[in-house]
Design a protein that fits this description.
The chain is an alpha/beta fold. The protein folds into two domains: 4-175 and 356-372, Glycogen Phosphorylase B (Rossmann fold, 3-Layer(aba) Sandwich), CATH 3.40.50; 194-350, Glycogen Phosphorylase B (Rossmann fold, 3-Layer(aba) Sandwich), CATH 3.40.50.2000. Helix content is 45%, strand content 15%. The chain is built from 16 helices and 13 strands. The protein has helices spanning 13-26, 44-53, 71-89, 101-112, 135-145, 154-162, 176-184, 194-201, 219-234, 248-257, 272-281, 292-298, 313-318, 328-340, 342-349, 360-371, and strands at residues 4-10, 33-39, 60-61, 93-97, 116-120, 148-151, 170-172, 205-210, 238-243, 264-267, 284-287, 303-305, 321-323. The strands form two sheets. A seven-stranded parallel sheet has the order 3-2-1-4-5-6-7, with helices on both faces. A six-stranded parallel sheet has the order 10-9-8-11-12-13, sandwiched between helices.
Length: 385
């Protein structure tokens, strides 16, 4: 049979973390698949470090990132660049991931070329088109264009069914981030950042914080940082480590609220491998990230989500995650409770991870090949861990 030419398109670090394991899985099927990797480099430096970690050299690199780029810039440059790549490679299937602007542009480019589209991490929804922005509409619009919907959980599948996606087009696979995590976290990992080594050597209970969401810029972040500061004042046994996002608007508030605070270790943004291993050392995670809501529960870490909505309700239902928003009082109270109440802490840390078993990439590849008539058994769907 003719090899199936499958082009993966991604452009940011979160996409790369979740798509690189899929590229590696496709490379195992040399008799059936010809993989093509196209990156937009919507995020240049952060994308490159993940590509190096997984030893993946893109076949096409659009290198679109510019200083001060807007959503308009990203969309137009990615769409036009991918138009040329698709015309040259003529893929049989394009795979995109999640909800970035690169994802939407890749989906639209495939649609305009009348090429089938597969959406990895399909079906996540908050129901509010501006929360998160622009991610909610990026994934909804991609879902409208997709032919294959690789839903990470049964909840995501139900979201798609409510939008009249045919059930036969939906495959519940688990999330590929667990595949990535399983190959990245190491028991004896050595950190080369002296700030991290100092935090780990302190012997304190470690609170890991990340913030970057557009909707949290300004006063919401200020409230979160003040809640963290008060928590540490009340709990001398605890410390916080905070890889600070490069966004100047984030850094301005961090410097104003946390710089010089006792037992707050501020460090630069981290590559994926050391960050995943740092998360494994943490006791509590405070974040407004999407992916960390999936990763931290897999490592048995309670997560307080600094957002008013989440497209990942499975972890909330399972009890591994609490949706706190950014209010000072609730963030402080929930963090203090995790530090003070061992039973409450265990109820979150020991809850069942609903996101994957490390075989999502295998399920995706087998679903595509079996649907296309290749002699590969279709996968059993992910039922939850």
């Amino acid at each position: 049979m003719k090899k199936l030419r499958i082009m993966t398109v991604f452009g940011t670090r979160p996409e790369a973390i979740k798509m690189c394991p899929l590229v590696l899985e496709m490379r195992k099927y040399t008799d059936y698949i010809e993989p093509v990797v196209a990156v937009t480099a919507q995020h240049r430096e952060m994308l490159d470090q993940v590509l190096r970690l997984f030893a993946i050299e893109p076949d096409y690199d659009l290198n679109i990132m510019t200083s001060g780029q807007t959503l308009y810039d990203i969309t137009v440059k990615a769409l036009l660049g991918l138009k040329e790549v698709i015309a040259k490679t003529q893929p049989d299937l394009v795979l995109v991931h999640g909800d970035t602007t690169t994802t939407f542009a890749g989906s639209l480019a495939a649609y305009y070329a009348q090429i089938e589209l597969g959406h990895v991490e399909a079906g996540l929804r908050t129901g509010n088109k501006f929360s998160p922005y622009p991610e909610e509409m990026n994934r909804k619009l991609t879902g409208s264009l997709a032919d294959f919907h690789f839903a990470p959980t049964a909840v995501s599948r139900e979201n798609l069914l409510k939008e009249n996606v045919p059930e036969s087009h939906i495959f519940v696979t688990g999330n590929t981030v667990i595949d990535a995590l399983n190959t990245t976290v190491q028991k004896d990992f050595v950190f080369d950042d002296p700030v991290i080594m100092q935090a780990l050597a302190s012997g304190k209970r470690l609170i890991l914080m990340t913030t970057h969401r557009r909707e949290n810029l300004g006063e919401p972040m200020r409230q979160v940082y003040r809640a963290l500061k008060t928590t540490l004042e009340q709990h001398p046994e605890a410390a916080a480590i905070f890889p600070v996002h490069k966004n100047p608007k984030v850094r301005e508030v961090v410097q104003a609220e946390l710089a010089g605070t006792d037992r707050v270790y501020l460090t630069e943004p981290m590559d994926y491998e050391p960050f995943a291993n740092l998360m494994n050392h943490a006791d509590i995670v405070l974040t407004d990230s999407g992916g960390i809501q999936e990763e931290a529960p897999a490592l048995g870490k309670p997560v307080l989500v600094l957002r008013d909505t989440t497209e990942r309700p499975e972890a909330v239902t399972a009890g591994t995650v609490r949706l706190t928003g950014t209010g000072y009082d609730v963030v402080k109270e929930e963090t203090c409770r995790l530090l003070e109440d061992p039973a409450y802490y265990r109820s979150m840390a020991e809850a069942v991870n609903p996101y994957g078993d490390g075989r999502a990439c295998e399920r995706i590849v087998r679903a595509v090949l079996s649907a296309k008539g290749y002699p590969v058994a279709p996968p059993e769907e992910f039922k939850g861990c």
